[in-house]
Q: What sequence folds into this?
C-alpha cells in the first residue's frame, strides 16, 4: 500500500488536493474518509464532487445515510455511517450494490462498518493541526 501526505492550510486548497488525489488513485472509485468530528471530511468530499463536475450543493448525509449526485460523467454516492449501530444496517440500505456499481463512492465514518470496506478502497485520514490546518494522509 502506498501512502501520500497533503497539508491544507485553508479550505481554498482542497479542490487542488482533491483533484490530485483523484488522479493519483485513478482508476479507484471507492474512498473512505477517516477523522474526528469537525476534521473536514464533508468539506473534502465536497471538493472531490466539484472536481468530478457535480453542480448541486454537497451536504452531509448524516440523517439520510446516503446522498446521490450526478457528476459530469458519473454518479457519486456519498455515505455517512456515523449513526449506524451495526454493519447489518449498511446491508439494509444496499451498500454492496453501491460498492459494486462502478461509480464513485465516498464514505464518512467507515470505521463503523470495517468488515464491509473493500480491500481496493483508497483511505484518507484527516487530522486537525495547529492554526486549523489539516493533514490529509492518503493510503491506496
A:
Amino acid at each position: 500500500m502506498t501512502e501520500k501526505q497533503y497539508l491544507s492550510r485553508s479550505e481554498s486548497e482542497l479542490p487542488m488536493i482533491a483533484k490530485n488525489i483523484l488522479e493519483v488513485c485513478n482508476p479507484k472509485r471507492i474512498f473512505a474518509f477517516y477523522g474526528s468530528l469537525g476534521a473536514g471530511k464533508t468539506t473534502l468530499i465536497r471538493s472531490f464532487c466539484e472536481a468530478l463536475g457535480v453542480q448541486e450543493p454537497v451536504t452531509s448525509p448524516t440523517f439520510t445515510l446516503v446522498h446521490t449526485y450526478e457528476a459530469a460523467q458519473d454518479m457519486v454516492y456519498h455515505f455517512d455511517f456515523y449513526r449506524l449501530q451495526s454493519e447489518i444496517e449498511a446491508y439494509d440500505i444496499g451498500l454492496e450494490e453501491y460498492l459494486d456499481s462502478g461509480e464513485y463512492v465516498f464514505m464518512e465514518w467507515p470505521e463503523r462498518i470495517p468488515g464491509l470496506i473493500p480491500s481496493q478502497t483508497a483511505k484518507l485520514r484527516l487530522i486537525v493541526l495547529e492554526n486549523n490546518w489539516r493533514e490529509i494522509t492518503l493510503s491506496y
